[in-house]
Amino acid sequence: AQSVTQPDIHITVSEGASLELRCNYSYGATPYLFWYVQSPGQGLQLLLKYFSGDTLVQGIKGFEAEFKRSQSSFNLRKPSVHWSDAAEYFCAVGERRGSTLGRLYFGRGTQLTVWP
Amino acid sequence: DAGVIQSPRHEVTEMGQEVTLRCKPISGHNSLFWYRQTMMRGLELLIYFNNNVPIDDSGMPEDRFSAKMPNASFSTLKIQPSEPRDSAVYFCASSLWVSEHTQYFGPGTRLTVL
After folding, report:
1. Fewest CB atoms less than 10 Å from the CB: which of A22, A35, B51, B87?
2. A26 has which bridge partners?
3. Residue among B45, B56, B101 whose CB faces A51 most closely
């Protein structure tokens, strides 16, 4: 069965420091992979996605993620965190239905706190 | 362009009452998803539609929950009767089935059942 694991429930970093949020997935085929961000009281906003091709994908707000098939991972990174990045981050794996996307399976999320 | 619209944004009701949550997907999108978010269970898919037809309702917790999509621009999620354990944030999302591969989320409805 498909599943997503985000090992870190809560991460705290200082503003300007680098960031890496971990995500591991379980899926029988090549997955569709996503990172979403949720600010308090808001819906989820897509940061970036991977479907195929280059395993390093760039997203909005200076985020990037790397797909590593051998490790079943899709870690999110940012070289320099801003205070406005404080939010909850969700990794998700999308079920492939032919060439299209079916349901998404979400991780439990990682809460990011940024110290000034 | 307007994003996914959900109403109401907040709902407080008493146990046993009927609750109806509403969603308007992004115009032109042909897939619609209902999710529930709780501290205990995280974000879980309840049901999704493609071209107004329910494709997967395996996440609907029990018969008290029902969802409809009478047309491409409107969907409802109904809970009858509501129970305190239904308290959660309910999100609606929409996507283009064929090519977009991305779900766009609404702001959510925070439901509190007393």
Report:
1. B51
2. A3
3. B101
